[in-house]
Design brief:
The strands form 2 sheets. Strands 2, 4, 5, 6, 9, 10 and 11 form a 7-stranded mixed β-sheet that branches. Helix content is 0%, strand content 46%. With 127 residues, the protein is an all-beta fold. A hairpin with a 6-residue loop joins strand 5 and strand 6. The chain starts with a strand and ends with a strand.
């Protein structure tokens, strides 16, 4: 069983930066594609960014491309999301997610491809 624990959220002003972390335990971190999703109040959970097992391939939703960077350090079993130039519309609970080792793709922006989810960390951006 994989456990994912996010950290690094907080309250910041527009234009600021935050770095989220997701610590994984149980299972083999390097065998799983990983992703970040977010859910704003009153909205559906949406894709933010994804990364392949090796970290060489990344994918972003259009609204975060150029501002957010997803990365991973497999030796530390940790996933990161560097968020720059934050906007009020980035306010949400951010979740990390992991696929099964048997997932056939390199990365995914589809929630149903992920088998494990963290509890989320709140990011609030004030204007």
């Amino acid at each position: 069983q994989v456990q994912l624990v996010e950290s690094g959220g907080g309250l910041v002003q527009a234009g600021a930066s935050l770095r989220l972390s997701c610590a994984a335990s149980g299972g083999t971190f390097s065998s799983r594609a990983m992703g970040w999703f977010r859910q704003a109040p009153g909205k559906e959970r949406e894709f933010v960014a994804a990364i392949s097992r090796s970290g060489h391939t990344t994918y972003y939703t259009d609204s975060t491309k150029g501002r957010f960077t997803i990365s991973r350090v497999n030796a530390l079993n940790t996933l990161y999301l560097q968020m720059n130039s934050l906007k009020p519309e980035d306010t949400a609970v951010y979740y990390c997610a992991a696929t099964s080792p048997t997932y056939s793709g390199h990365y995914s922006y589809t929630q149903s491809d992920y088998d494990y989810w963290g509890q989320g960390t709140q990011v609030t951006v004030s204007s």
